[in-house]
Amino acid sequence: MAKHHSHQQTKSRLLDQVHNVLRLKHYSYRTEEAYVQWIKRFIVFNGKRHPEEMGEKEVSQFLTWLATKKKVAASTQNQALCALLFLYKKVLKKDFGWLDDVERAKKPSRLPVVFTREEIRAILARLDGSKWIMANLLYGSGLRLMECLRLRVKDIEFDYSQIIVRDAKGSKDRVTILPEKLKEPLKRHLEKVKVLHEQDLKEGFGRVYLPFALARKYPNAEKEWGWQYVFPSKKRSIDPRSGIERRHHVDASVLQRAIKYAIREAKIAKPGNCHTFRHSFAAHLLENGYDIRTVQELLGHKDVKTTMIYTHVIKKGGRGVQSPLDVLL
């Protein structure tokens, strides 16, 4: 029994270490949760042995099992690999070579699903309030779902018609367009959010989560209006990391459910979701004749090859090239 108890202690000590290093390196809470779950699964898969006693062979076997027996998607297997590499490199400080023996889950080379303009109109017509504004931002500004939810008041620059997407994928900031059509609805929405924030302040709350060391650097910033979320949650909640009660941004599932429902109501047969709006933003810009580099910058793609995939789904055939015969006629 004592042995079992000490094993549990070692495991929880290791997971505490993992949590601490993830926080130290400013990983998001979602990533932290996912990594810890993968590390737990890895330990259980290997008969609860301590990762210190294991290495490349066990990691390879676990990842191969995920791909062959569990039939996980390539992105899921990749997340598990990232979690285990993080564990060994950053927490246990063991660096082994690249995992050559892993059977990699095949990434299907599917073209992105894109809504037509009519389908976009039909979906947006079935949304209202802040959900309507968020969906419009996904399509009108090409935002990823979490980029939209994490927007702060100061990131929306009405005068310059632009949105600053901070700490996006790859920890980079980028600038994208703020559609003219959204300016007035957004301003009206922010007036309501400001009332909510002022109410929170009166009740002794109103502090928002600040990224990295900003909370220490600017001790009053967390109460400032500019740092508040554009799409706050209806209820305040306890922050699982700090134990502080505050108002976080709205949960991703709120918009995901609303969009799923709107797609069904609009009788659209395509397998669309929140991310389909971003795909549609890219494809429609290319259809409108914008050059690929501009679209790449607005989407924040590191490599133009990623943006190139949209040239295969736009309505112009033959990679968007107009035949010289059509120009002649």
What can you tell me about this protein's structure?
The protein is mostly helical. It has two domains: 2-91, Orthogonal Bundle (DNA polymerase, domain 1); 117-312, hpI Integrase, Chain A, CATH 1.10.443.10. The protein is 53% helix and 4% strand. Strand 1 and strand 2 (162-165) form a beta hairpin. InterPro entries: CB, DNA_brk_join_enz, Integrase-like_cat_sf, Integrase_catalytic, Integrase_integron-type, Integrase_recombinase_N, Integrase_SAM-like_N, Tyrosine_recombinase_XerCD.
The third-level CATH topology of the largest domain is hpI Integrase, Chain A
Percent of residues in beta strands? under 5%
Return the domain count: 2
| Known CATH architecture of the largest domain | Orthogonal Bundle
| SSE pattern, N- to C-terminal | HHHHHHHEEEHHEEHHHHHH
Overall morphology: globular
Mean pLDDT: 88
The total strand number stands at 5
- Low-confidence runs: none
Helix content: 40-55%
Sheet of most strands: 3 strands, antiparallel
- CATH superfamily of the largest domain, by name, is Intergrase catalytic core
Radius of gyration, taken over Cα atoms and rounded to an integer in Å: 23 Å
Given helix and strand content, the structural type is mainly alpha
How are the strands of the largest sheet arranged? 1-2-3
Tell me the name of the CATH class of the largest domain: Mainly Alpha
N- and C-termini, Cα separation: 87 Å
User: How many alpha or pi helices?
Assistant: 15
Protein name: Integron integrase
GO molecular function, one term: DNA binding
Keywords: DNA integration, DNA recombination, DNA-binding
Organism: Desulfofervidus auxilii
